[in-house]
Amino acid sequence: MRAMRVHAPGGPDALREEQIPVPAPGPGEVRVRVAYAGVNFIDAYKRSGAYDLARPATVGEEGAGVVDAVGSEVTEVQPGDRVAWAGTTGAFAELALVRAAALVPVPTGVTLRVAAAVMLQGLTAHYLACSVYPLSKGDRCVVHAAAGGVGLLLVQIARRRGATVIGTAGSEDKAELARAAGADHVVLYQQHDFAAAVQDLTDRRGVHVVYDSVGRTTFLHGLTVLAPRGMMVLFGQSSGAVEPVDPQLLNRHGSLFLTRPTLANYIATRDELLWRAGELFEWIGSGELDVRIGAEFALAEVADAHRALEGRRTTGKVLLRVDPECDRM
């Protein structure tokens, strides 16, 4: 079968297509015929060596497809079921092995294309807005990269929960996407002083929470716009890793809270995974949550997909087409 593999850390061209043996599912495992795979920054972090990865490896953390075979002790799914997953490496291939407990059934009315697009970023947006800092009516929040894959979903969920949303974007086109998703205000960070703009928009009261996926270039400014006892939620580093932080900064800016969450800890049980995914699919099915797919690439074009994502030339979700015919089964 075809798979996109990494043998050594490097740039996008470190990804190369190989023919590898078809894997057999072991106990508790499922083999899935991949329809679509999601492209995410975590794939780039693992490819480049910023995150640990046992190499050689097939990358890709997110996908959707049809169950092809099951191992022993699997009770959750059966061959022919439509499923999606996030957080299991190996999606950039024609067939992927996934733990049965990590698979989510895709309901009728949600395509595998949309399911692949919403799993990692949608689950992330859900846990950020519903659990890390559970937004409620009257809360004010900043969403950095508001036109990105997580950003557009997070803006919608935040508004759904009654919060006032201040987004940031790098261009007017991206700002329009964020506004269309429901952002109350959008700051063009390349043209305006982000911190000053937020203080003006909040009458210098600040915001209750900053959701920061950008990292190095936004983190310290973000601390200055938080209200006393506000929370900085750092969940990515698209501009680079944040330098070590002196905890006294949190004291000086108003007894702030800082957290660096990761998705795995917020889908640690199957019940929690099914709850979060179930709500996302319900909102999609009812038209309450719009999933924007900004770009699609063929499996063999994965290096181009990584270049587009890392060059910030994308909005919404980036997908790889692996076997779209699965969506017609």
Please, could you describe this protein's structure?
Helix content is 29%, strand content 26%. The chain has 329 residues and is of the alpha/beta class. α2 packs across α3 (149-160) and α2 packs across α8 (270-285). β15, α9 (302-310) and β16 form a beta-alpha-beta unit. The radius of gyration is 20 Å and the shape is globular. The protein folds into 2 domains: 2-120 and 267-328, Alpha-Beta Complex (Quinone Oxidoreductase, Chain A, domain 1), CATH 3.90.180.10; 136-260, NAD(P)-binding Rossmann-like Domain (Rossmann fold, 3-Layer(aba) Sandwich), CATH 3.40.50. The mean pLDDT is 95. Strands 3, 5, 6, 7, 8, 15 and 16 form a 7-stranded mixed β-sheet that branches. A 6-stranded parallel β-sheet has the order 11-10-9-12-13-14, with helices on both faces.
Which descriptors apply to this entry?
alpha/beta, 329 residues, Quinone Oxidoreductase, Chain A, domain 1, seven-stranded mixed sheet, 29% helix, six-stranded parallel sheet, Rossmann fold
Helix content: 25-40%
CATH topology of the largest domain: Quinone Oxidoreductase, Chain A, domain 1
Low-confidence stretches: none
| 3D shape | globular
Helix/strand/pairing class, anyone? alpha/beta
CATH homology superfamily name of the largest domain: Medium-chain alcohol dehydrogenases, catalytic domain
Rg over CA atoms: 20 Å
Distance between the termini: 20 Å
Largest sheet: 7 strands, mixed
Q: What CATH architecture label of the largest domain applies?
A: Alpha-Beta Complex
* Order of helix and strand elements from N to C terminus: EEEHEEEEEHEHEHEHEHEHEHEHE
Any idea of the CATH class of the largest domain? Alpha Beta
Mean pLDDT: 95
**Count of individual domains:** 2
The total count of strands amounts to 16
**Can you count the helices?**
9
